[in-house]
Specification:
Helix content: 40-55%
Number of strands: 22
Shape: globular
Distance between the termini: 37 Å
Radius of gyration: 26 Å
Structural class: alpha+beta
Length: 581
């Protein structure tokens, strides 16, 4: 304890100073244990009111990490709220922060990065807020294990936290991490890396009230769209609890009941101090993580999303967590244990609704194991007649959730992601454009030069403007058939493919060209060309993983600058080389 205290620096810093940290990208968040941003506008405004009235607010805790960054251990929601107020994301008493109060915000306003909203809060009130001193503590030279431990201790008391949030805070085992990863993928608040600048958290924050721009609307999240969960359930982490129960049911082969205390045990937590419960919790945590290790964390994530995407395609109506769990596990069992796949969607859905009428799933806190198993078996028996033997051991390469995640991330992580409409000209000739293909090769090289072992994605079949979407739909006579994710359109490659004898013929042409161009790369690392389906649209993915050395294409070096791919001059090559040391 003495050693820890000697590394703890406590001071007072003004909001203005911490905002400078924010602008200078000093504040970072570790999403492995941090909660999602879910504060309502009322909660944010109450915080500003507390500051305006000079009332005390709790201490902010940071950990000093490498590269001069400060990792937020406690206070992320409060800091985000304060900075969003300064940047005119919400008002206080009906008025917005005067951006001319600070030199930094005035400069950002002059550059049209920030936009002043009206009416403005009085200048002296704004000055009072930004001069308010925040109590902060910074752990110096902190190791990850210490940060995890401190975060868990601070946030495990249960104050203002839901039961699922208490389970997740500070939990870094593979099971807890997989629950977090899948939950983020389905909600859409996914990021390219676990370590994220606080500046970028706004774009992946969950807007419970559906009124904030540049955030994820809770009502648009699958669970809310289908009335399986409410917006407040999302806030409390009930989607994560549902996913955790499904994963545990799959891994243990329906061994345990569905109950809050059982779910606690998977996280190694117990609500009581009873020695037998503590022992059971520790044993269960070891068991579930051992089973996950045996199955494979990445494999289970992919298998889960395959079944989830199939359920999305079938698009049947549900309004019960237990119905969803029973249906999910039943379909999972039929696909992966009995090697079945859906033959007729219409008959499958009809049989499924028939099975739901026969289920007795109470909505209390405990679902007995025998009742759960019976519900799952009823569904299996009634839908199996609408299924056929699968010709292969895995279902088709439908990757709806993954594609939507890639598109969402691309808006904030353009160094690692690129979206292309296709390889054919959008004109009367509509012929293959080799220059477009070469441009993709240059982008592969550029993404490979982001650093050692970095990953990136290029998706082919996307229109990032409505005008491009309109051209594609007009040329290929598919008006109104493009799907939309955020502000990005997905017409797919079906139009281009129609010029070939089959999708296989089109894919072979691209694959053969890619193999030829691969010979012009040096230090490419891994780069796979993968055909995928998004609903009824065909897409191509180039999945890139860099090597340990700088990459060249046609004896030239390329790099990403925001969403652009540029050729590097001598000085830039020297700079890029430093990334690989």
């Amino acid at each position: 304890m003495i050693q820890i205290q000697s590394r703890l620096a406590i001071s007072g810093e003004s909001i203005q100073e911490l905002y400078n940290w924010f602008i200078n990208e000093i504040l970072i968040v570790n999403r492995r244990y941090q909660r999602k941003l879910v504060w309502t506008s009322d909660e944010k405004e109450k915080l500003i009111d507390t500051i305006f009235n000079s009332y005390p607010i709790p201490l902010f805790l940071f950990a000093e990490v490498e590269n001069g960054k400060n990792e937020i251990i406690d206070g992320m929601q409060r800091l985000s709220s304060i900075f969003h107020f300064i940047e005119n994301k919400f008002s206080f008493n009906g008025k917005y922060f005067d951006l001319e109060t600070l030199a930094t915000t005035k400069s950002l306003c002059d550059q049209n990065i920030l936009i002043q909203k009206e009416p403005k809060l009085e200048r002296d009130a704004c000055a009072k807020i930004v001069n308010y001193k925040l109590a902060i503590s910074i752990y110096k030279n902190s190791e990850e294990e210490l940060i995890n431990d401190v975060f868990s201790r601070i946030n495990s008391s249960g104050k203002k936290l839901s039961r699922q949030e208490i389970r997740q805070v500070g939990s870094t085992e593979d099971f807890a991490d997989l629950v977090r990863i899948i939950s983020e993928k389905i909600r859409g608040d996914i990021s390219h890396q676990d370590i994220l600048l606080l500046n970028k958290m706004q774009t992946i924050s969950i807007d419970i009230e559906d009124g904030t721009q540049n955030s994820i609307k809770a009502s648009s999240i699958y669970w809310c769209e289908k009335s399986i969960l409410s917006k407040n359930d999302i806030r409390d982490g009930e989607d994560e609890a549902l996913i955790a129960n499904i994963l545990a049911t799959i891994l243990t082969k329906m061994k345990y009941r569905i109950a809050n205390d059982e779910l606690d045990f998977y996280y190694g937590k117990s609500k009581t101090s009873n020695p037998s419960d503590i022992k059971k919790a520790n044993e269960r945590k070891v068991e579930i993580n051992r089973l996950l290790s045996s199955y494979g964390k990445e494999k289970l994530c992919n298998d889960f999303l395959k079944i989830f995407d199939l359920i999305r395609i079938l698009n049947f109506k549900l309004n019960s967590k237990r119905h969803f769990l029973a249906i999910f596990v039943a379909i999972y069992n039929l696909y992966f244990y009995k090697n079945k796949e859906v033959d007729s969607h219409d008959i499958f859905i009809k049989n499924l609704y028939s099975s739901l009428d026969k289920l007795e799933t109470t909505q209390g806190g405990v679902w007995a194991r025998d009742n759960m198993v019976e519900a799952i078996e009823i569904i299996e028996k009634l839908v199996i007649d609408s299924m056929k033997d699968s010709e292969k051991q895995v279902i088709n390469n439908e990757k709806i959730t993954e594609i939507e995640n890639f598109i969402s991330i691309s808006s904030t992580e353009s160094l690692y992601y690129d979206l292309k409409q296709g390889f054919h000209n959008l004109n009367e000739k509509n012929d293959f454009n080799e220059k477009m293909f070469i441009k993709v090769m240059k982008t592969i090289c550029a993404i490979s030069n982001n650093g050692k072992n970095e990953k990136g994605i290029i998706i082919i079949g996307i229109a990032d403007t409505s005008s491009d979407k309109d051209k594609i739909e007009e040329i290929y006579n598919i008006k109104g058939k493009s799907r939309k994710v955020n502000n990005i359109y997905i017409p797919g490659l079906n139009g281009e493919i129609s010029k070939y004898t089959s999708f296989e013929d089109y894919y072979k042409k691209i694959a053969d060209l890619f193999e030829k161009e691969k010979t012009k790369f040096v230090n490419l690392g891994k780069c796979l060309l993968e055909p995928v389906d998004y609903y009824d649209r065909h897409l191509l993915l180039f999945k890139i993983e860099s090597s340990n050395n700088i990459c060249t294409y046609n004896s030239k070096v390329f790099f990403r600058s925001g969403p652009q791919t540029n050729e590097a001059d001598v000085m830039k090559v020297i700079e890029l080389t430093e990334r690989f040391k």
